[in-house]
Amino acid sequence: MSDFHALKITAVDSLTPNAVTLTFDIPEHLKNTFAYTAGQYITIKHTVNGEELRRAYSISSAPSSGKITVGIKKVPNGTFSVYANESIKTGDVLEVMPPEGRFVFESTSEAKNVAAFAAGSGITPIMSIAQTVLESHSENTFVLVFGNQSPEETMYLKALQELQEQYTNRFFIQHLFSRSQEENALFGRIETSTVNFIIKNKFKETAFDAFYLCGPEEIINTVSDTLKSNGISEDKILFELFTSSDAEDTLAEELEGKTKLEVLVDDETFFITMDKKELVLDAVLKEDINAPYSCQGGVCSSCIARVTEGKAEMVKNQILTDGEVAEGLILTCQAHPLTPTLKVDYDDV
């Protein structure tokens, strides 16, 4: 489940002065392995300056395209994002894990009205979702609220314009720019007033079936809270964080003693003795066990495992539902063991 595959890059295209897209060649024998649902991401593993890096990047292409493309924005003082923007070229080979993720849109036979709020590189999975929504049903509509600093720094601006021309009566974009005054765009950032303007004014006659939110944690919290205050049920609000605030690990300070940890991954069982102050994933990786992981910050879903015996508690959880937690699922990058023994299963998730 945590296997990587060597994929060749067939295209490197500039999106903005600080962002590129990478398109991967998927060999015929890996087509099924790399089949994906709109909104999912891939994890890329690569060694830069002697250090192994893993990064999760959302797929921006639609499943119907038959290809996998990701957008990568250069992060100040970043490592892989800088490498991708400055050094990667067509023909290079990267190690890639098959697509995963729960921030998805699956088409149905019924027409849907979908809205999305994205900021910066948060547009990446929304591109895949928007294209799939629009092409999967002739009566589907899609409203996009997209915040950026300026048009020059707006990822996928040309592709969005093309989508708008193709689906004139079904695809609507409200741009916001925080550092540029532009015609037909709002000035500023996505705030409570922005959400209210969209759902209570500009599209007040539209009953939305789902809202997709992607970007920094602060914006997602603002949009989500505002939607709920307007009577939108929580099950209609889906979100994916690209960045998250660091939660203080006060739980570790309270824990004492050791835990005998049993780990099942890829049909192999491993036994570890770990300190309860450690996080489960850290202890697993320390033993060179090939467990799946990517962000190690609790914003992706790569490291989910099921607790089959014992108890663990997460420092923070912004991925799993209450029902999934009740079923024993944990983010191992955020979980401390609470019991003398703990069994986790990476295969049964």
Automatic annotation (TrEMBL):
Chain segments annotated as coiled-coil in the UniProt record: none
Which Gene3D superfamilies has this protein been placed in? Answer: 3.10.20.30, Nucleotide-binding domain of ferredoxin-NADP reductase (FNR) module, Translation factors
- Which ranges carry the 2Fe-2S ferredoxin-type domain? 259-349
Residues annotated as domain FAD-binding FR-type: 2-106
Q: Which InterPro entries match?
A: 2Fe-2S_ferredoxin-like_sf (IPR036010), 2Fe-2S_ferredoxin-type (IPR001041), 2Fe2S_fd_BS (IPR006058), Beta-grasp_dom_sf (IPR012675), Cbr1-like_FAD-bd_dom (IPR008333), FAD-bd_FR_type (IPR017927), Flavoprot_Pyr_Nucl_cyt_Rdtase (IPR001709), FNR_nucleotide-bd (IPR039261)
Q: Which domain of life is it from?
A: Bacteria
GO MF terms held by the record: 2 iron, 2 sulfur cluster binding; flavin adenine dinucleotide binding; metal ion binding; oxidoreductase activity
What keyword terms does UniProt attach to this protein?
2Fe-2S, FAD, Flavoprotein, Iron, Iron-sulfur, Metal-binding, Oxidoreductase
Name of the protein this chain belongs to: Ferredoxin--NADP reductase
Organism for this UniProt entry: Flagellimonas hymeniacidonis
